[in-house]
Amino acid sequence: MLKYDPLACLPSSDELPDSDDTPVDNQLQHLMPNLLEAILAMAWADRMDWFFGVDMGVYYDPNLPPIVPDGFLSLGVERFFDENLRLSYAIWEEEQVPIFVLEVVSQSYRGEYTTKKDEYAKLGVLYYVVYNPTRRRKPRFEVYKLVNGEYQLQESNPVWLPEVNLAIGMETGTYQSITREWLYWYNEQGKRLLTPEEQAKQAQQRADILAERLRALGVDPDSIA
């Protein structure tokens, strides 16, 4: 007897457009989520159950256009390492709604405080984060948590996200040689997770200290294989 599989009738993520082709008008719309993704890639290098998408289409209905957050995090999904990476994110394939969504407010509003916020709430996104670099009558940094179907503002910096086991917050730092205010991940003790550049610099400083100690002992560090 032939069994009917409704999922087999739906398009795969490979067959769907990967974004809405809307050009960004603010460089931070790429840089902010890229930094958050890069930090997670270091902090969760051994985890195989997460995905962070940047400017990628999130499909919840095959007959409707996708929602395209600036950045989003999903937990409990497969992490791909081969060349066949995700082209888009189809919820009926992944079986997980993103737990975290980031929107960076552009020069002209794109519904970050209205339509997009409502869409994410209906979709069931637990945490909705808005970063507003222009300070136009709005706070710079807002984190909302979905409670009983409505978003409630979480007022602190950083904001602890227990379901993610990390906090999200903002502070001044340097990324890609740009010193400004950035969004970062923090651990439960409130310590900021280092960026890849910071970890590399820290490793180099330790190597330099070790080399100096070896030289003080009369050992040429360059001669050590």
UniProtKB/TrEMBL annotation:
What region holds the Putative restriction endonuclease domain? Answer: 34-163
Q: Which SUPFAM superfamilies match?
A: Restriction endonuclease-like
Kindly give the Gene3D superfamilies that the UniProt entry links to this protein. Answer: tt1808, chain A (3.90.1570.10)
Q: Which InterPro entries match?
A: Nuclease_put_TT1808, Restrct_endonuc-II-like, Uma2
Top-level taxon of the source organism:
Bacteria
Q: Which region is the signal sequence?
A: none
Q: What is this protein called?
A: Putative restriction endonuclease domain-containing protein
Its source organism is: Hassallia byssoidea VB512170
Its lineage reads: Bacteria, Bacillati, Cyanobacteriota, Cyanophyceae, Nostocales
